[in-house]
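Input/output pair, single chain:
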Amino acid sequence: MTLQEDIRVRRTKQNIVNAFVALTKEKSIDAITVQEIADKAMVNRATFYAHYRDKQDLYDQVSSRQSASSPPCGTPSSF
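Output:
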């Protein structure tokens, strides 16, 4: 039996990712604080740290998820 991630956890992580992406459109990653990400995602800073080590960890997970979902160069995106 595989453990499935709770929908509340998935929603919280998605809110954090969405907040991070929105903030990166406003300012550089170095200028973004964890508190700003948490505020925009409407979660407590402790909740952020329950899911990610720091903003670099969040960045790494977002970029790895994006690179895994994008097709290789020269490959049609839809068939």
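Residues 7-63 form a domain with the Tetracycline Repressor; domain 2 fold (CATH 1.10.357.10). The radius of gyration is 15 Å.
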